[in-house]
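Handout, section 3.2

Students often ask what a structure token actually looks like in practice. Rather than define it abstractly, here is a full record for CHRD domain-containing protein. The first block is the sequence as you would receive it.
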Amino acid sequence: MKKIFSSLLLLAGLAAATSCAKDETVAPVITTASSTLTGAQEAPTPNSSAATGSFTGSYNQTTMMLTYTVTFTGLAPTMGHLHIGAPGTAGPVSVPFTPNNTAGTGFVSPITGTVKLDQTQATALLGKSMYANLHTTTFPNGEIRGDITTK
């Protein structure tokens, strides 16, 4: 009886030790995001700017970190942001871009960054209700915009 009890106790101890020995890692869920920025997408008033741009990003749903690159040509942005808003609607600034020119007051292409999104921002990004917007002195409400899609 003692041998059976000792054997069972030993097996239970081994099972407990092996089940705690390794932490299982969870593979991150990565979503790609992209957009083409044009004046025709500006809302509520589209414009005929010849400037263009692109937004590309990688969103880690596990850590909620968004890494992005915005490229552009044909404009000198004074401000840039990600906004929350459905296509065709204007929405509030959600993620401001950090100025990257030598004076620290405007932007040169490319604009890059990494930001931790909160739940509202993550829901907007994954729900296709976020857009990239670049503003200029000519178009202070936004010269080019791109509604972000995800895959």
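Discussion prompt for tutorial groups: The helical segments are 2-21, 119-126. How would you have guessed this from the sequence alone?
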